[in-house]
């Protein structure tokens, strides 16, 4: 009987071919929506159009009444990250590249760009370490590289890494004593980034002011998680954002501002754009979708999960961030998924400065963004696609391979049902976290199918994933953000030095005085 079964079973299970047809949905790209089917062959989109015919043995995905969109791209995650943010303790973030990406796929994100961290200031060693960690990947991924010091080796490693598919470098103005860079290091980093055509990314908060405010806050008796919030007022973020933008203006380099959490920072970015600067402003889901009041919760476990930097601010800041996204000042929605579970967070039970910084979001990003922005009418479904996917692909030079539903693009696609209501909870999420900052939140609109590399990996609330299936996607330097910078340099010189040219000394005679 056993022998017979094993013989019969392969013929009983459905044998799918290599093609997949998504039928009857509304395809939403960043520039338009259209009723169309999508035919996928292997890992690529073969055609998009009405009433496509399915070749034999094609698996059909019914998308009637639903939106068919490019898979989300989250450009800000910290998986398997060895960091006790702020505490210097060697705490490793809860999700690795397997569990974090499983959660991502369940929430409709099909690619991430994670932050590789240097080892004792060494970029190349840090990158090697992250390549190892990422071998567990279940979907496409890439990296930014953080820079926390400045010397010849850092400069040369930056060059080498751009040849290995890294096209962005992150500089922290915060985290004194571990990651923070000084202004002169930042200027050097900006200049080298510009030379390489790589995008500098900045975490903007004033490091010195933070240390001062943390001491004062702790000293005045606020030792719990609320002390984190009190000691990081918006003015520190506004100042850091302004400084980073002004220094980027000085070097004439495009710049990417991560996790914008204050209305003042939104205004700084708007002002820089008005000056003609090339700025990408990133919002994170927690910055406009999380309950800022919870950091005051009497239960440490509840309050500590909300500790992230810059902190989650009040509804007025959140409104300004949403307005920034709707009005085009902010270009991207990410998460800053830096998951530290309740055991990790207890490191700061008696001192908020030792609570590892970071919140979850990799799985919730699309749901929270849809609920906060599309449902209230602030943005359209096409805007949504642009903010969670297309603009990321364009910024990091992986468009139109990613971020678009069109023939030849990667078949990373989601089917989104705008009518389904569901409740976010740690009891049903796919991250390894034992808490969720959106616990109990009811949202309308759900990713019902996720297709990654042409395969259905999420359907009927179940994942079908394989460790190691993820691919490293090299990101090329240069691109639209870097075009024309030399001409802008010349214009700057003409405007600012009308009577001479820097680099060409004035040949002066020593005049005789009368
Ligand atoms: O609190 C945060 N944001 N943790 C992650 C690290 C960072 O600053 O991006
Ligand atoms: Zn940061
Ligand atoms: Zn981060
Ligand atoms: Zn969900």
Key traits:
514 residues, alpha/beta, Urease, subunit C, domain 1, seven-stranded mixed sheet, 19 strands, disordered N terminus, binds N-(aminocarbonyl)-beta-alanine, binds zinc ion
Explain this structure to me?
This protein has 16 helices and 19 strands. The protein is α/β, with parallel strands linked by helices and 514 residues long. The protein has two domains: 2-68, Urease, subunit C, domain 1, CATH 2.30.40; 71-445, Alpha-Beta Barrel (TIM Barrel), CATH 3.20.20.140. The strands form three sheets. The chain has an eight-stranded parallel sheet with strand order 8-9-10-11-12-13-14-15. The relative contact order is 0.16.
Offer a quick outline of the entry.
33% of the residues lie in helices and 20% in strands. The chain is of the alpha/beta class.
Q: Please outline the major beta sheet.
A: 8 strands, parallel
Counting copies of identical and different chains, the oligomeric state is: single chain
CATH fold node name of the largest domain? TIM Barrel
Decide which structural class fits the backbone.
alpha/beta
N/C terminus separation? 118 Å
**Could you say which overall geometry the principal axes of the C-alpha atoms support?**
globular
How many discrete structural domains? 2
Strand order of the largest sheet: 8-9-10-11-12-13-14-15
SSE blueprint and pairings:
Blueprint: H1 2-12, E1 19-23, E2 26-28, E3 33-35, E4 37-41, E5 44-49, E6 59-62, E7 67-70, E8 72-77, H2 97-106, E9 109-116, H3 123-133, E10 140-147, H4 152-163, E11 168-172, H5 183-196, E12 199-203, H6 207-219, H7 225-230, H8 234-251, E13 255-257, H9 263-274, E14 279-284, H10 285-289, H11 300-304, H12 315-327, E15 332-334, H13 342-345, H14 365-374, H15 381-395, E16 413-423, E17 442-452, E18 455-459, E19 462-463, H16 485-496
Parallel strand pairs: 1-6, 2-7, 8-9, 9-10, 10-11, 11-12, 12-13, 13-14, 14-15
Antiparallel strand pairs: 1-4, 2-3, 4-5, 7-16, 16-17, 17-18, 18-19
Helix pairs in contact: 4-5, 5-8, 8-9
The protein binds N-(aminocarbonyl)-beta-alanine (URP) and zinc ion (3 copies).
